[in-house]
Amino acid sequence: MQVRFRIFRFDPEKDSAPYYRTYDVEAEPFERILDCLNRIKWEQDGTLSFRHSCAHGVCGSDAVRINGVCGLACQKLVKDYHTDEVLVEPIPNFRPVKDLIVDLEPFFETVAMIKPYLEASDPPEKERLQSPEDRKKFDDAVRCILCACCTASCPVITSENKRFIGPAALVQAARRIFDSRDEQRSERLNQLDYPDGVWPCKNYFECTRVCPKEIPVTKLINLIKRDLTKSK
Amino acid sequence: MIFKHDAVIVGAGLAGLRAALEAADVADVAVVSKVYPTRSHSGAAQGGIGAALGNEEPDSWEWHMYDTVKGSDYLADQDAAEVLAKDAARAIYELEHMGVPFSRTAEGTIAQRAFGGHTRNFGEGPIKRACYAADRTGRVVMDTLFGQAERRGMKVYSEFQLLDLLIRNGRAVGIVVYDVAKGEVHTIHARTVLLATGGFGKVYRVTSNCAANTGDGVFLANTAGIPLQDMEFVQFHPTGIYGLGVLISEAARGEGAVLLNSEGQRFMEQYAPTIKDLAPRDMVSRAIMTEVEQGRGIGGKDYVNLDVTHLGKERITERLSDIASFSKIYLGIDISEAPIPVCPTCHYMMGGIPTNVDGQVLDAGGSIVPGLYAAGECACISVHGANRLGCNSLLDLVVFGRRAGKKIAAELKAMDWVDVPDKPEAPLVEKISAFKSRKSHLKAFRLRADMQRLMTDRCSVFRTKDDLEAALKAIAQLKDQYGEVSVDDKGAVFNTDVLEALELESLLTLAEVTLVSALAREESRGAHFRQDFPERDDQNWLKHTLVRKTAEGPQVSFKPVTITRFQPKPRTY
Fold it and tell me: Which residues pair with B229 in a beta bridge?
């Protein structure tokens, strides 16, 4: 079948403003949107730029906005879209650098801020013990691949508070807060207790809706809020 | 611009990061990565990381070593395999201490599962040796090591492509890199260089590998005159999603899934009566292709079914949720109700840059190349020989990544600075502008697609002299045409068009070396099966292949295998 794509284009070296360009692609229903982007790049227009690598939703490189909804181009299939045109744009809430590529430095800075590593002293000779029940408490957060779909979709960041640390960083924090091995639980909770920390979240659930790994992001944020409130 | 660091590490997958963490204690270390570090392909490993912890049942490192050697079809260097198996438990405990969220047993210890080719008591039956975190083990180890790098404030050059390896008077002195975001070419001057650039599965059409796996480090080592070892041994993972190549982890079979042909037969019972579906990957891939060739592919096509349905929804959700999700997304099936269509997919390169057990690169004469190190899939130590066992690669990365890092830290104490050659960036700047100025309309993807088709059609699970010779001739033509490649994108910022054109040179060269090696080895061993030489021939071929670039073309030579504990025996399971 033939699919028409309308793609956001912007080359900072040539264009004073972004524009959209249309491409027609021959594609099968079960092909990925990423396959179509590659076909456009290879067969029609080599100037189109986007990030991608593993092509099956593990590396987290190819987050884009398709028909207004953020997702991984390698996880969305042609058959998922029924509009006359499939609109592909860079993820919002980040500065577009070229075409579908955005500047993710601010995103990774928020992740670095929450100290994305286990804080635990005095390791035993073998492994630390952890019950399957305790392990389960942070299993959802472990699935995060740092694709930025959630933070890009957050309405709070879009229109209320640009400094909000964002859902991805909070998922990363939850991964450590709910890990029974971590010894800095209260410090981690306190770190999020400031106006741009965990509190700006207003339960819009956009993050949960778009997460390619089906992480209940909003729920994790609310669990952090609950524990913070309890600890006061 | 010239940047300066004591040690530069190319690649931010598990091998590169593990080495970096080790060396960062004593030196100024910089990591260069063509993707943002957490996007590295180590993260795609699913099923587990092997170690004889004995958490689920009694185990020993000797059994693990034996399985590794037998799995390698006796081509592994046994001193290296011993290091791997002996150091495994320590490496796993270390990862746990760093924070890896392993799945747990009821007692709270690290959970372990069965995996292909891993057995108890020297081959008696399957054993639970693979430590895992559901079916996303690689990803969580990746995230954990990256967290540790963040904690140290490690210097990382993200989205920098390796362009050249600088060697002066036989000593590695730095690299030339391409800053993809800006389109600038820079030199990184260093006292030591570690290549941890991964594999090059992208030479094949059907592969589980990511787009970034183009073998840039292996290619540049070859260009520098370093021989490449055992390049004919390409692992085809038996269970890639049909048509896509996306990996369905061996963990599925470890948890009890079975392979079925068109007649509904569990055919692995005939090929490996003792461990059946948990036979090593080379054997299972051959069995699948044999079933297909004998007309027992599903619906007369070239795939078989992997049946997970009897495991039940709960166990699938708990232990195999990623592959359930892949199957749902890409095939539209619920694996608790329907079988998964699978066929072999190019997965892993056993061959690569020859090193010793401390990651030091060895030249054609077997001498150490000062200042140059390699670790991970791009290296050939060789622990995997002719066929790697599942869950031994993650282990290889952390065990030998650490050893390379330790060696670098030790050697830096006595390693002086040697100047980089004059204007090292100039030829690369010229190469990039040549792509932009040519008016040929020959795009990299055309040549790449031809190469990938050739390699998948003629140099896969089964090989013959005729196929390999034909492929070699065709690759030579593609290499000739490479000089005509041009790009549409003439800009500097994120010019991925140029990036793909650059990567193609690596791929074409490595395809050629793979074919030359495969043609040279006139026997069948591990993943290399020659239909015209179907038997293993220890008399003549119990040796490593080396292929070196010379003015007259690739030159083949050989080097002996180190055998310590286990004498070669017929390999049955």
Answer: B352, B546
DSSP reduced 3-state for B265: coil
Q: Is the dihedral of CA B356, B361, B365, B367 positive or negative?
A: negative
Instruction: For residues B240 and B237, give the distance between their C-alpha atoms in angstroms, rounded to a whole number.
Output: 7
Contacts of B446 (CB under 8 A, 6+ apart): none
Task: Indicate if the pLDDT at residue A96 is higher than 90.
Answer: yes
Q: Give the CA distances from residue A150 to residues A34, A142, A144, A217, B404, in Å, rounded to whole numbers and listed in that order.
A: 19, 15, 10, 8, 38
With CB atoms and an 8 Å threshold, state whether B101 touches A127.
Answer: no
The contacts of residue A48 (CB under 8 Å, 6+ apart) are A7, A9, A37, A40, A41, A99, A100
Positions in chain B short of pLDDT 70:
none
- Integer Rg of chain B from CA: 22
Count the alpha carbons within 13 Å of B311 in the hemisphere toward its beta carbon: 26
Could you say which of B18, B113, B136, B281 is catalytic? B281
On the question of pLDDT at A75 being above 90, the answer is: yes
> Contact B97/A45, CB-based, under 8 Å?
no
DSSP class of residue B553 equals: S
Best probe of the B interface among A31, A127, A182, by most B CBs < 10 A, is A127
Query: For position A42, what pLDDT does the model report?
Result: 96
Question: With a CB-CB cutoff of 8 Å, which residues 153-182 of chain A face chain B?
Answer: 175, 179, 181
User: Distance between CA B126 and CA B216 in Å, rounded?
Assistant: 37
Q: What is the pLDDT of residue B152?
A: 94
The DSSP secondary-structure symbol of A45 reads: -
The span from the CA of A163 to the CA of A190, in Å, is 18
- CA B423 – CA B430 distance, rounded (Å): 12
**How far apart are alpha carbons B291 and B517 in whole angstroms?**
27
Dihedrals phi, psi of A136, to nearest 5 degrees: -65, -25
- How high is the pLDDT of residue A4? 98
pLDDT attached to residue B329: 95
DSSP B82: H
Decide: B327 and B343 in contact? Cβ < 8 Å: no
Does the beta carbon of B182 lie under 8 angstroms from any beta carbon of chain A? no
> Is the confidence at residue A59, as pLDDT, over 90?
yes
Work out the burial of residue A232: count CB atoms within 10 Å of its CB; fewer than 13 is exposed, 13-18 middle, 19 or more buried: exposed
Contact status, residue B188 vs residue B162, Cβ threshold 8 Å? no
Residue A232, pLDDT above cutoff 90: no
Q: Which residue of B has its CA nearest to A129?
A: B108
Q: Chain-centre distance of CA B258, in angstroms?
A: 25
Residue B327: partners with Cβ closer than 8 Å, 6 or more residues away: B241, B248, B333, B334, B335, B340
Spatial CB neighbours of B294, under 8 Å, sequence gap ≥ 6: none
Residues B238, B365: contact at Cβ < 8 Å? no
402-461 in chain B: CB under 8 A from chain A: 443, 445
In angstroms and rounded to an integer, the radius of gyration of the C-alpha atoms of chain A is 20
Checking if the pLDDT of A231 tops 90, the result is: no
pLDDT at A122: 92
DSSP letters, B91-154, are: HHHHHHHHT----B-TTSSB-EEEEEEEEETTTTEEEEEEE-STT-HHHHHHHHHHHHHHHHT-
- The verdict on B494 touching A (C-beta cutoff 8 Å) is yes
**Is the bond leading into B321 cis (omega within 30 degrees of zero)?**
no
Q: Among this protein's residues, is B281 annotated catalytic?
A: yes
In this structure, the strands spanning B304-307 and B258-260 are antiparallel
Q: How far apart are CA A149 and CA A167, in angstroms?
A: 9
Q: Do A49 and B148 touch (CB under 8 A)?
A: no
Mutation for testing the A interface, residue in B49, B329, B450, B485 having most A CBs under 10 Å: B329
How far is A103 from B176, CA to CA, in rounded Å?
24
